[in-house]
Design brief:
This protein is of the alpha+beta class. The protein is built from 5 helices and 8 strands; from the N terminus they run ααβββββαββαβα. A hairpin with a 6-residue loop joins strand 2 and strand 3. The model has no long low-confidence stretch (mean pLDDT about 85).
Length: about 240
Amino acid sequence: MRSFLLGFISALFIISLIYYYYSKKLSIQKDVSVKISRIIKVIERNITIIRDRDANLSSEEKIKIALAKSDFILYPTELTLIGLKYERILEVWGRVKNGKWRHITDYKFTAFSGRLGPKLKEGDRQIPEGIYSISYLNPNSKFHLSLKVNYPNSFDKKMAKREGRMNLGGDIMIHGGNRSIGCISIGDDKIEELYFLAEKVGIKNIKVILSPVDFRRMEVKIKNRKHPWWRELYNRIKREMGEFK
């Protein structure tokens, strides 16, 4: 009987120790959990403050911040805009004269029309593909603001003449809003940033590369035998994109 009592007391003692250990551990875990929860709330509160602050920035201030992050002390003297149709992104690159190209920012397309492949005629809803410039800036666009792309360029006209195509279309813009019939739309807030930067750089110093895909990362198989010049066009685009890495 005595040995039984001793064994029972020992078992109770061991159980008490185990209970004490795990209750203490749970208490510590609870304290840690509470502290982590408080830290998360502080972080979320700070993120909200940063978002609210960013939302109140002007377009000019936002693009200046993007330039500063890309180590621009002054405005770039040259811009290159790379429109990637498959990825639906407009990349913005800048450099000072004879300097190194630096990536400034990206703008997502807010709308898309047509498919991969060059624009061939008016009404085909295609976003052009090729190397272009900016003809003018339009502050009175029905899509808030716009930059006119000089489609059709000399290459487009030459290939159309070779194939006997007429009515190539035109009025291709990079603009605000969220509609597209062959244009690149990036939203009102983003076009304000790009328009401001384009004014500072000057349209004569802006190049536009419009590509079916990002040739720096992938290739396309050309199956269209009707337009063999596509291969020449895509080789040109690849070469132009080569220095933007």
